[in-house]
Amino acid sequence: MVLASLLDALWAGIVWIAIGGVAGAIGDYVMQEERLGTPVTVVIGIGGGVLGGLFPGLIGLSDKGMFWTYMTCVCGAVAALVFAKRQVDRT
Q1: 3-state secondary structure of 44
Q2: Which own/partner contact pairs does 32-36 have at CB distance under 8 Å and 24+ positions apart?
Q3: Are 30 and 82 in contact (CB under 8 A)?
Q4: End-to-end CA distance of the chain, in Å?
Q5: How many CB atoms lie within 10 A of CB 55?
Q6: C-beta atoms surrounding 29 within 10 Å
């Protein structure tokens, strides 16, 4: 039982990283004028994806299903990319 929940959490984390990486790559493609470069936007997307994936559990919504968690993962990755772009634009 404990091993199954541990494997579920590990799988969710891997999927959050993958979704965040894809969101970072797409964000780099969409924001052509971005000065950060593809590797940095992918890393920012991964970080945002992991934070977005963890967010539902932190506020008590973790029982809403994996689709909801993945959607918040995508939103977290996009939000992190937008935040990073604004920070670069300010300099």
Answers
A1: helix
A2: 34/85, 34/88, 35/88, 36/84, 36/85, 36/88
A3: no
A4: 51
A5: 16
A6: 11
- CA gap 76, 54 in Å, rounded: 10
Q: What pLDDT digit, counting tens, does each position of 51-79 carry?
A: 887 877 777 776 667 777 777 878 888 88
Specify whether the CB–CB gap between 2 and 58 falls below 8 A: no
Contact 24, 37 (CB under 8 A): no
Per-residue pLDDT reduced to its tens digit, 40-58: 888 888 888 888 878 777 7
Are 25 and 42 within 8 A, CB to CB?
Answer: yes
- Block residue for tokens 């909801």: 68
Nearest to 89 by CA among 33, 7, 8, 16: 33
